[in-house]
Automatic annotation (TrEMBL), chains A, B, C, D, E, F:
UniProt xrefs under Pfam families: Arginase
EC number: 3.5.3.11
Obligatory cofactor(s): Mn(2+)
Binding residue positions for Mn(2+): 110, 134, 136, 138, 224, 226
Taxonomic placement: Bacteria, Pseudomonadati, Pseudomonadota, Alphaproteobacteria, Acetobacterales
Protein name (record): Agmatinase
InterPro entries in alphabetical order: Agmatinase-rel, Ureohydrolase, Ureohydrolase_dom_sf, Ureohydrolase_Mn_BS
PROSITE patterns referenced in this protein's UniProt entry, alphabetically: ARGINASE_1, ARGINASE_2
Entry's Gene Ontology molecular function annotations: agmatinase activity; metal ion binding
Cofactor binding remark: Binds 2 manganese ions per subunit.
Length: 300, 300, 300, 300, 300, 300
């Protein structure tokens, strides 16, 4: 181990200094949380995830051997948002995301994904393939009267043509849901694997299924930390028992190597409900898995 | 999602109003906890479980499609108990339980199960089949000199003929135990599956085994939250490592559909030791799994 | 002690059943929290305060002898709000408040006070005297670009003529503040006592000062729990050290008897940051002090 | 500093070894908690207080110069109790206490004080003077139907002639109370000082008042940790805001030197609700203050 | 259940009295923690593990039937260390360990293993087989400039010939690591199984692999609690997600019966980061599994 | 309020960027904690204090009107230390401190003060006046065999002539202490005020006393957060009840204006024992009080 002990690591993601200049892959925090419907506080997620990432600074990924220190990475700090105004915040997020070639966004609530997809779909000029890992389908047409909150992200993303439902897979889904809402996305071609499906079939089969659905075009990964079981990720707003173990989530991301990844978000870490930083560490580690997974292909 | 956000949900189980009139299936809290032998505080379990159940109010079960809102349910509030007096409390519990056709009791300590079984066995007029999910066998003849505490429930239930040992299965058992106590129930015909057995054989085999033991007669489910591993349910009085994952417990209950269920208790949630409400949520969700499982058959 | 043990108390404020019919004094929760600027989560405040109030159900106030059980009280449950939309939420709150003769509102963030004052000032037909207990002056013209958040409540209330600055006193103020903001309210006639002033001069002098400022007309009490020191109220979003002790706050409210009180709010309890329920208990107790204080005069 | 670092201190009170032989002053734990009426868990109090006392092992009292290491002290471990049976437990406690010349009991709930007073009054052959520091008067005739719980200790102690009401003073009282209960003890000659009285009059006046009431005969100190404000002692079952600061409690005990002290209990520490061990440390320190206070006179 | 309730159990490991005389197998705490590189506080580990072991006092192991009460066990209390001086502490630890025939050491940090191995290798007169369960390989040549910290234990142990790399297996490894460090131990013959390997291949295969590597000579078990996933063991200094479940760790130790075990350490429990004592309980239970596993062979 | 919401504030102290260039007053963290004798973890103090300081970024001091944004301030990040080696760490700290004109050091343990005083006394060329606010006198000649730990700082500082005992005042002292240790510093001219003295005499008298002792020469402020009562600062390693309230500490620092301040340290914040960030906030606020206090004189 070289450098400084973890407890003295600078607070950017993986110890990166803050900058305003994007790199090949850029991390940014989006502290929006006003569209959440149960427990609050994902605004503090980005800084908690960054702090937890100090554990991952030194050395390479133990399986792929990719060392993030050798990659072109930047931490752009926090996106500006409009306090108390979701619509204005979504517009601001889209504007800022549009300027970043490859963004790894740290939430914040899941509502941030919609403007990220808007910006990215416009950039790539086509619908994206989507790997959506979550306890909730997030395809409600609205949430308690709120059109653009964290429960309707993919309803809008599909309706707006930002993602291609036939190349979209949702993994970990297990929450209560109205029957018609549950049927909506599959009726449009979306593949849904529940957490019980993953437990029953195993992670290797899950990976194979996901790769088959995602295909070879530009793809996006949206990871809601509540996909993990509350035992592994208590620090989130709408926990659901029966979820994924952290090792399954890591294996899943490792299994995504070689696809055409264009961006990721890691959302819904709510530090006030975390214990001993384990949820923030899970978020940081899954973001780092993504970086090492896509970074593996950069050298090719 | 319709109705109110979860954070404004009324505090009855699944947002039900409190009532004194039983429904087809009635929920009640039993805040007895004076017979516990390690950590205290299950008296606060019922209210914590109810609060956590707000997450489950809206929508149907994601697999069975059963929507509790369509079932005849009631929350009867808290049972009266006799403070500081176990025997008097057990008598009170039995009296109150006798008036309720189908009771889902929220503990409170496991000691409450004995009077519930007494009331139910009398109602059905025969010994019950029992699915007992727990880290502890609870067949001690006494606990530290106390005849009727949370460790001797099934010793008495078998001796009193309330349950049929040949149609009784205990799942998740793993605590230290005197050799003669461990041998007592199996000698009477009880089937015992340790948590390691479940991990080794898989949940499908466990379900098959349980169904074979339980048979087709009137059955009762007693679920001690410490059957779950402390990672999934830290908020309990006598945790034991090596336990079940919450997804296994959910799968187990789902696998019990079609049997002749007459009642359930979910006991030993001790909120003072919970973190971020995950144990209470596990308790609430397992109770809701039971409701959806038995409710599925009501329409037939 | 009669009735049920506190751990089995129904969950309305002081164990009241929920109702839709106002009483002489009505309690309601307002789970709005999207205008907060530091730590999140006051949406969960009302239910936490209600749960903590179980400690106060049985018996009379130890000094005044007023027993809330003898008063005309109601718990109206939670106000409807518009998720993710402050302006629409403020309008909804004002509409609901307009229907309630004497409201004790449980926050939620401080932003809820503005519509409460709008409704009340219209009802009484004149500007109100205001006792504002808080760590922050809340007279910013905006907060980080947000016009109507928890930091600008009294800027608007004064500008809209809802409160009379000459009959307004702020107690406990101690946060960092721009010099011009600090000068704004005093320039309009508002009296400001810092927490250090209270510590130095004593609570009796503080009470005398407050009574002199408030005068005899219709008065309103807005109590931000962060007026208390974080030692006494850690569960809040924008804590500031050096605050009031809870006994000082109790003495202050007791000292307000005999004035023409028309309403109160107790805001900014953020349960995710609370420890062992002490902040929620402080909130519940201060609300109960208000009830007993105004209730003392009802019998006259 | 000599000896071992605090984190390696043996776990008896002040690092004492456990023994069965009483010393001039003996410490014992009484893990009874089944008579409590709100939050549970004082059974774990004695061990938490002992662990926290490691901070006090090395050196003398900073004011009196008394070094407990020079006194005849013993830690007798935990009293036996009858699980789930208050009456039988009280009898057991009385039997065990009867064998100990000068007992400092660590609770456990306040219900343990009654048998301690029974044993002590018999030993000294007369009614005792009582210094009772508490948020609650504990003179209810019963608690929720329970005759001998933590709320009726001094009702019975006065009725049984164990304490002399004219030489009894209650300090810190502030909870809700039925008017007739509040009047009962004063009508028998008991002096009551509320926490607000202490805050208003100062601790020196409080000490003078207490000494005047207690007089020169055999005296007993019963200290309920909830006399302290929840900010200083969150780890207790029935917290009430507005309480004493820990420095006031220390000053009070220091001010009791020279009286004829025969025993003390420190009760109602509930570790599950403690934070960072501060309540247990307060309990340990107040017990140590008593030891140093009475030990000061031993050498004379 | 006989004896005393768990909440009154004496504080030695498994309720043993402290002694200075070793038994056939002796437990001792080693509160060294100054060589840690991320979160602090393993000095408090031994006492927390002992306290948690109260759950295991009564009765036999549920599978092997071994009852620790029938074995020759002792708790020797805490080892002396040199505050603030790692090298002097390591020397002290080695001296103390040299006097104990079969030691089960409770950490403290992993740095304590080196002097334990030094003492043990000298005692047995040969290199030891090693089962090392951990998230980290701990074969760095130094940690942030520190030669003898918790990250370089096995680098030194191999270089000093204390362990035989060909009979050494590391299980659970998953942290970031420099490529050359990751290659160092395997190049010397060490077998490394990642946590993902265990999850993928199953615990039975893992056990078989370990037994094959360890062989029949004198063997040592070093268990770093961070081998477990943070969900199961949050209370540690350098958590890494994706770890073992507690049931896997238990199965692993049970699978080691019959080998020539000479000692164990259970290190890196950091109670300040624990929740509801689950990490301490995991540590205590794994130590108890070792005792029952080796004790099983004693009677042969 | 301008700028960004507090939850998006950059992580330097008061939102400052990290730099390597000192300003008129520079903040630096010193994450040394291996010399502590009770609870561990002050290594994480600097980053926690910085994070908590976000509350203080916007606006001026409410009493003095000093706005830190107008001062020449820098955050130099963390000092390098030698892991596991106190003596080497002290040497490193002294070297780094020697390069900084006016340092506000954020601990870390109190042991860091000795090298800071060594560097500063050499810089100013004379003994310093010292205001030492603490629960412990820290004048032991050693701590459990350790010559340079957090308990012997001022023993060495006096012996080395770094501070002038006649211009040294210790405030808040209240821990157990050997009689000869308690007598040592006063015998050399040091003034000692216990926490009880402060409570009894009032903070104005305390300020006057301190100013009289400190005189007009170069002065240093060493503030151990455990001077505060554990209610106000639970997050520390060696808490002692009966301490100062945070408002008293603020008043004390404000009362020190106009003296010749040359440096400050704020030590012993141990975040693992903190609750809801209140200790870190207290530390941050007291450091900010110092900045505003000394900054007030800069413009003169």
């Amino acid at each position: 181990m070289v450098g400084v002990p973890t407890f003295a690591t600078p607070p950017g993601f993986l110890g990166l200094p803050f900058t305003t200049t994007p790199a090949a892959l850029s991390v940014a925090g989006i502290p929006l949380d006003i569209g959440t419907t149960n427990r609050a506080g994902t605004r503090a997620g980005p800084q908690a995830i960054r702090a937890a990432s100090r554990m991952l600074v030194d050395g390479a990924h133990p399986v792929s051997g990719v060392d993030p220190a050798t990659l072109s990475l930047a931490d752009l700090g926090e996106f500006a948002i409009a306090l108390g105004d979701i619509q204005a915040s979504l517009a601001l997020i889209e504007q800022q995301a549009a300027l970043i070639p490859h963004l790894l966004a740290l939430g914040g609530e899941h509502g941030v994904t919609l403007p990220l997809l808007r910006a990215l779909a416009r950039r790539v000029g086509q619908s994206l393939a989507l790997l959506h890992v979550d306890a909730h389908c997030d395809t409600w047409s609205e949430s308690f009267g709120q059109e653009y909150g964290h429960g309707s992200v993919f309803f809008h993303a599909i309706n707006e043509g930002l993602i291609d439902p036939h190349r979209t897979i949702q993994i970990g889904i297990r929450a209560t849901v109205q029957t018609e809402v549950a049927a909506w996305a599959p009726a449009r071609g979306v593949t849904v694997l529940s957490a019980q499906d993953v437990h029953a079939e195993g992670i290797a089969a899950t990976i194979a299924r996901a790769r088959a659905v995602l295909g070879t075009g530009p793809a996006y990964l949206s990871f809601d930390i509540d996909a993990l079981d509350p035992a592994f990720a208590p620090g989130t707003g709408t926990p659901e028992i029966g979820g994924l173990a952290s090792w399954q989530a890591q294996a899943l991301i490792r299994g995504m190597a070689g696809l055409d990844w264009r961006g990721m978000d890691l959302v819904e870490v709510a530090p006030a409900y975390d214990v001993s930083e384990i949820t923030a560490l899970a978020g940081a580690t899954l973001a780092w898995e993504y970086i090492c997974m896509v970074g593996k292909d950069w050298g090719k």
